Automatic annotation (TrEMBL):
This is histidine kinase. It is an enzyme of class 2 (transferase). GO terms for molecular function: phosphoprotein phosphatase activity; phosphorelay sensor kinase activity. Residues 126-326 form the Histidine kinase domain. GO terms for biological process: cellular response to phosphate starvation. The keyword Cytoplasm does not apply. It comes from the Bacteria. It is found in: Cell membrane. It comes from Fusicatenibacter faecihominis. InterPro entries: BphY/WalK/GraS-like, HATPase_C_sf, HATPase_dom, His_kinase_dom, Sig_transdc_His_kin-like_C. It catalyses: ATP + protein L-histidine = ADP + protein N-phospho-L-histidine. It is a multi-pass membrane protein.
Length: 330
């Protein structure tokens, strides 16, 4: 009974029109004093035909309602829009198109979530193996008498960098970017990163020089220091003892140049891919393939561009375009 009431409620406009039509017909016949026979016959035929349409419509409506109830129960597990009843009106078709668009969006988000989960698992698996190395090295150094304090500081720095990398990775994956865009003097920001990485440079006797670092940059200090620290760490890692690293402004760009082993031409197009280690990363065996990908993502988040050029056996150049206007920051 409830289903019938719901159906009639949907068709109330048709029922009101039928009552209005038959009432108007009877009123006209009454005003003009016409015989009631034709009017009664017309009203009866109209009512019977309308009732037939309503009955047929009710059975179709009830069948569709049951299909939708079944789909509703199935939707708790999964729902394919192909299972929806065939649209009988243009309005129903629009509703189904909306549902299909939402389904595509959900599938896209699910795919992205799965990819992110797989990427996170791979990263933290590699990270857990990666961080064991400096920890094991510190344990061995502590067994020596007296302990090599400089070596301990280097291994502690590596551990700190791995932890900072994991925290930054987590913030980026969780969209918790917590940006604070302000104007900063470029030199102090660069020197923060250099100071953190200096034990690695000193240990390998890598000479460091700073060129023109004058002027201000509109950026987030914490994230820019993170970018520079990662790039300087890579430079120290892949530059042999006695090499050199230089950083400074050239033609409006901040350029980091080293005399390291360089990057193979076939690896250059893919160095910003998540999890891609390349030939150099395979040599290191502990590389996660996340560092440069994360750096690239941070630069995009800051609204800046970067480019890497390299010649195998000669060195690598990293170009950071830190030019940004106040309007873009807002």
């Amino acid at each position: 009974m409830k289903e019938l009431c719901d159906f009639l409620r949907e068709k109330r406009q048709l029922l009101f029109f039928l009552l209005f039509f038959e009432g108007s017909l009877c009123l006209i016949y009454g005003l003009y004093g016409l015989p009631w026979g034709p009017a009664g016959y017309t009203c009866l035929v109209t009512a019977v035909v309308t009732l037939g349409f309503l009955m047929a419509g009710f059975f179709r409506w009830e069948r569709k309602r049951r299909q939708l109830l079944i789909l509703k129960r199935q939707a708790e597990q999964s729902l394919e829009t192909a299972d929806l009843p065939k649209a009988e009106t243009p309005l129903e078709k629009i509703y189904q198109e909306i549902i299909q668009d939402q389904e595509k969006r959900c599938q896209r988000e699910q795919k992205e979530s799965r990819e992110k989960l797989v990427r996170s698992r791979e990263y933290y698996t590699r990270w857990s193996h990666q961080i064991k190395t400096p920890i094991a090295a510190m344990e061995l150094l502590l067994q020596e008498e007296p302990a090599d304090v400089r070596a301990l500081k280097r291994e502690l720095l590596k551990t700190s960098q791995y932890v900072e990398m994991a925290l930054s990775y987590q913030r980026m994956e969780g969209d918790g970017n917590d940006l604070v865009i302000q104007r900063y003097e470029l030199r102090p920001v660069v020197m923060q990163a250099v100071k953190k990485v200096s034990p690695l440079l000193i240990h390998k006797h890598i000479s460091f020089s700073a060129g023109d670092l004058s002027g201000e940059v509109l950026t987030d200090e914490k994230w820019l220091v993170f970018v520079l620290e990662q790039l300087l760490t890579n430079a120290s890692k892949y530059t042999k003892e006695g090499g050199s690293v230089r950083i400074g402004k050239e033609n409006g760009l901040l350029v980091l140049r080293d005399t390291g082993i360089g990057i193979r031409p076939e690896d250059l197009p893919r160095i910003f891919e998540w999890g891609y280690t390349g030939y150099n990363g395979r040599l290191d065996k502990r590389s996660t393939g996340v560092g440069l990908a994360l750096v690239k993502q941070v630069m995009e988040m800051l609204g800046n561009k970067m480019e890497i050029r390299s010649v195998l056996g000669e060195g690598t150049e990293v170009f950071l375009d830190l030019r940004r206007t106040e309007l873009e920051a807002e």
